[in-house]
Amino acid sequence: xxxxFFTGFPGFIANNLIRQLIEDQQPESIFVLVLxxxxxxxxxxxxxxxxxxxxxxxxxxxxxxDITKPNLDMDITYQELFINNIxxxxxxxxxxxLAVPKSIAFNVNVRGTQQVNEWVKTLNHLKRxxxxxxxYVSGKRTGKILETELDCRQEFKNHYEQxxxxxxxxxxxxxxxxxxxxxxxxxxxxxxxxxxxxKFDGPYFMLNLMDALxxxxxxxxxxxDAYGNFVPVDYIFESTIYLAHAxxxxxxxxxxxxxxxxxxxxxxxxxxQEFLGKMPKWTTPLTLARLSLSLxxxxxxxxxxxxxxxxxxxxxxxxxSQAVQDLKGSGISCPDFKEVVPAIVQFYREHKNHPQYxxxxx
Length: 362
Fold this sequence. Notes:
Layout: E1 3-6, H1 12-24, E2 29-34, H2 39-53, E3 60-64, H3 76-82, E4 88-91, H4 102-120, E5 128-132, E6 143-145, H5 159-172, E7 180-185, E8 187-189, H6 203-212, E9 220-221, E10 230-232, H7 233-245, E11 252-256, H8 264-276, E12 283-284, H9 286-293, H10 296-302, H11 309-312, E13 316-318, H12 321-327, H13 337-351
Parallel strand pairs: 1-2, 1-4, 2-3, 4-5, 5-7, 6-13, 7-11, 8-10, 9-12
Helix pairs in contact: 1-7, 4-5, 6-8, 8-13
Organism: Piscibacillus salipiscarius
InterPro entries: FAR, FAR_NAD-bd, NAD(P)-bd_dom_sf
Pfam family, one: NAD_binding_4
């Protein structure tokens, strides 16, 4: 029996990792750090978990705090309790947005992670510190990218990537003295069975575009041999909980990516065939698409971020050999994206007009 601490609650990933944790382990207590303005929503989500999992109301505890402040801005009584009673820390709080301004991204992703790192160092009985990064700390690198690689003097496509890289560098330095596991997911998409997701980004930008243009002949966007790196959320949840508790996971970084990815044009075709029952017939130059999405009115109509185009032509392959090897024998493997497409499209079709899923496009 162990005690767990999560940042990033009530966010979608932290929320579902806790559900997976309850299924796979027997946690004694779970503590979730929550911003004061998110307390009501956090309590609501906890009640949902209690009802769904039929667990004791005393299993999950809300802790008011802020990762960007010293000691995470927690009350002194919590700090004293946690020093000798927290065994696993999952740090998920971050700004996950391609168009985020630099100052906001740095404050949360870098300064926040630095504060969490300093707090983790005070824990006397820590068994594992799990940090949620992203495969895209590789920035503009191309070719095969290994899980063991981090700082290769790469440049970045946006402030999200750069600040997540800077944060991971800080966490990576802890591996010498702190039992640490770093998780780098690819582009997280819907649940492989239900299609459920938290927001329509990544492959959903393609569906947004197709939905807006469905009465027109829809083109491919540019010519590229780039691979898509789309990973169902349930694979992320199951793998993370398993690797966080596996002895072999200590001190390692994992790409939770598709070991057999499809090219972006194939992904685009699969989504269009499933959603609209037709295939692209022509190709528009990427430069023209970028020019069009430079206009706010076009971005809002198509519900597509201009920054997403950078990923459609990135000739990078995120090698996940270490993750695949260490997951052997667990029964956990990444589903074939082709098999996930129907669930993703169905969920999108049912929720495409719900504002809570659509990202605000400026």
